Please model this.
Amino acid sequence: MTESDYQRFIHNVSRFILVIGLLGAVGLGSFREIRTGAAFLIGAAVSWLSFWGWQHLVNALTPGAKKRSSWFFSLRLVVLLALAYVIIKFFRLNIAAAAIGLLVSALAVVCELIIELIFYARTRS
Model:
């Protein structure tokens, strides 16, 4: 995988996270209630921030990158999760919807991998 392929993959996954998060929040907000959609959106936002953190961790492992402590990454993730938990409890949002929102980045990666496989199969035949 070249550098441009990696950057394109990251860009596409970020767009998928945005689209899935917004569509899920609007869908849940329409069919359930606005609090359920908001909880899903908070979970999706934390999922994106987690994906962003992992992206920076991978970039830090490349040769010549500025080295940071792993404690910084771990502490940031714990603070984000604690903040999301406080927001969900304070506004009495649906915890199940927020937990499902946390899976948005995983779904986005799977969607991008499927698209990459489809395009790869087309170019090979």
About this structure: The chain has one domain: 3-124. Residues 3-124 form one domain.
